[in-house]
Amino acid sequence: MPLESTTHSLIPRPGRSSAGAFFVPCLLLAALFAAAPPPAGASYPEPGPPAASATSLPAQPDIFPLQLPGLRLDAPSPVAPGSRTEFRAEYPKEPGSGVPAFVLQRGEYGGSGYKLLVEMGDLQLKQTRNTLQEVRGRGGRFSFLTGSFGNRATLETFATSDAHGEGADDTLVGATGELSLLDESASFKTILLSGRKSLDREGRWPAAGARRGDVAGFVAQLKPLKGLVAAEAEYDCSSYDASTSDLTSPMRDTAYRLKLSGGWGPSRYTALYERTGPRYLLMSAGPPRDREGGSFGVETVLALHAFDVKLSRYNDNVENNPLAPRVNRYEGVFDYRFRGVKMLPLALQYRKTVIDSGREPLGTLPKDVAEDAVSGQLNYLAGSWDLGVRGGMSQRIDRLRQQRELATTSLGFLPRFSAGSFTLLPDLSLKRITDFNAAQRTDQYALNLGVSGKLLEKRVDYEIKGGYKRECTGVPGTGKETFGAKLKAVYPLARFFNWSRQPSLAVKGEYNEVNNLTEDRRENDFSLLISLDGGSFL
């Protein structure tokens, strides 16, 4: 089967420097380092596997260490200095396109006391949560590493550009430097990023104006007692200009976070304090603005039981704006998992949330709302069957008026059957929402069925999904009905063609229908696609 595709979308940050002007001097700097005599007594780790190109995005940690694809820093290098090149290309999983979805050309050179890495193509860039969470774009990256005796210094520069197929010019350039001491017992990192996005679809800036932004981050990590105590601190400054064509000054603000973590035996703890200013803006996804607070969590795993407790308190209006109230949010979550019976795993959760306000300006009503939620899931594992039941209840109370605002009850049945390449996934869910303010009750019923597997001696991959959902309010002639179905089948043609990337024949169909009983309107659409992927000779 073709390799899974790697999506690449650039999320730019506006700036003044162009990608080429920033990246070319870095390549010249690399040549100077390669010609210089190496320091004595330095050693380097063996290059590791290339970076993954998966499209999924896992949960982001608070502070990301500097990761150089192909460079492992946890073991000394037993090989002599030398160079290595690599080319990677991946094609879409969906047939019908012979254009690679991911292309990367890499070159490495390792000497006695230093290592160089140059990459051109589709890059995955990731720094910290407050600077650059994760973006993918096409460009170049240069990395230089040196160090010895448990200490190392790393310099990385990169430049990416993408037009998104609309002619708009997007650029992102950046540089990072990291110093690690005493086998990562202490590390310090500086991050500088700059980018811009043209406001004109044809990319004519600066005449047409552009969004421009810069961010600088400073990160420190201390691990005096590895495993027991670890401290992290980050301070960031941002500058954001929504349009360079006007006379408005850029918005500038800061953000910082402090974190303590560690554990002993089967227990772990985490304490976090963070603050983000109201004018802290990034072009890409960033932390919530105008927010201040902290959280504390403890997790422990016993022989048959696992407990996880999290407490947090946050508020907005961090600069005490007299024209707006300050809204406080308190939340506590208790998770429990029982593993005493192997065939019956059990998970329970209780969540308590309180939202209130203070320092209300004249004419603003105070707010004091509390919400309680209980949920749980029980699975019965019996051979090829996995029978799951999930349910939950929640209610929201206005504590100022001492009355309920909203109540929700849900129940779901989640069976699963797997036998070889055949999988059956039916599910049934029921949900009732009662709005006491509007004196209205809404019931939701949903039934879904999915079948997937292989046919014709495991040559054809097929997948069939269908579902029906009904919403009713108890009033005759109101509600909504939704029906949907999908079909997909892929037949490889490898037996007919001896190519490196095998061709395939695919059939895809989809049907959707929405019947709005309240508005007496029905909408439906149907699509059928038959595609022949010709593969590749290379």
Automatic annotation (TrEMBL):
Domain of life: Bacteria
Keywords noted in UniProt: Signal
Signal sequence, start to end: 1-42
Protein name: TIGR03016 family PEP-CTERM system-associated outer membrane protein
Source species of the chain: Geomonas diazotrophica
